[in-house]
TrEMBL record:
It comes from the Bacteria. InterPro entries: RpiR-like_SIS (IPR035472), SIS_dom (IPR001347), SIS_dom_sf (IPR046348), SIS_GmhA/DiaA_subfam (IPR050099), UPF0309 (IPR022951). Residues 36-219 form the SIS domain. Belongs to the UPF0309 family. This is UPF0309 protein GCM10010394_68030. It comes from Streptomyces crystallinus. It holds the Pfam family SIS_2. PROSITE patterns: SIS.
Length: 251
């Protein structure tokens, strides 16, 4: 079977975007890593939130091999990917006012903690209010979003603002509006989204920067190992026991 021309083009597009965020977002990634390291060193907690497919990047840094054990998923029922039926209900919930505040009020988050909010468009009520409420509670907010949406779409929040407007640090994924990298004359709609690839890379780069910052201070980063390597379960058991009061995997 011959190679797919479009498959190759997608890889090229994804690599190009990864190179852009590596070069153009380096300072913001470093700042986010430092903020996370500051919180870990101060005894604080770490949370990640995303709705719809943006939740995939948030989930990717929670309870995983090579990841910081202290990163917790701040889950909003019904908005984590396709965890409801019909799946379109999740999209509708992203536009509900007041939901973010209720979730934060019932969460273990407290002043001084860090919340990473992932939202490709950053225009829906849920991520906007999540950032607004988190900052009001004294959390530091890191936003991972595409600034292109702020330039060519309208906010769906009553304030007319976007996620980027309520963050202490913003990482721009550079994803174009519509999140589709390819077109074909015989295909009526654009296709091949790259937001998950790029956003997940930004999240992992942020975690790497945090580990580096902690190591430079002489603090061992609380990292998890793979449970599929010898000694992994024992290692993880020690880390989970040591930091159990800052881990909320069941939240």
């Amino acid at each position: 079977m011959s190679e797919s021309k479009l498959a190759g083009q997608f890889f090229e597009a994804a690599i190009g975007l990864l190179q852009r965020v590596r070069d153009e977002e380096a300072a913001n990634v470093a700042a986010a890593g430092t903020a996370i390291a500051d919180t870990v060193a101060a005894g604080g907690r770490l949370f990640a939130f995303g709705a719809g497919h943006s939740s995939l990047a948030a989930q990717d840094v929670v309870y995983r091999a090579g990841g910081l054990a202290l990163m917790n998923l701040l889950a909003v029922p019904g908005t984590v990917g396709v965890d409801v039926t019909p799946a379109t209900l999740g999209s509708a919930l992203e536009r509900v006012d007041g939901l973010a505040g209720a979730v934060l009020d019932s969460s273990p988050a407290r002043p001084g903690d860090v919340l990473v909010i992932v939202s490709l468009s950053g225009r829906n009520s849920l991520p906007v209010e999540m950032a607004m409420n988190a900052r009001a509670l004294g959390l530091k907010v890191i936003g991972v979003t595409s600034l292109a949406y702020t330039e060519s779409t309208k906010s769906r929040h009553v304030s007319g603002t976007f996620l980027r407007d309520h963050c202490d640090i913003v990482l721009d994924s550079k994803i174009a509006v519509g999140d589709a990298e390819l077109t074909h004359e015989a295909v009526p709609a654009p296709f091949a989204p790259a937001s998950t690839v790029v956003t997940s890379a930004l999240m992992q780069a942020m975690m790497a920067a945090a580990a580096e910052s902690l190591a430079e201070r002489g603090i061992e980063p609380p990292l998890l190992r793979s449970g599929n390597v010898d000694g992994g379960h024992e290692w993880n058991g020690r880390v989970l026991a040591e930091y159990g009061d800052r881990i909320f995997f069941r939240h």
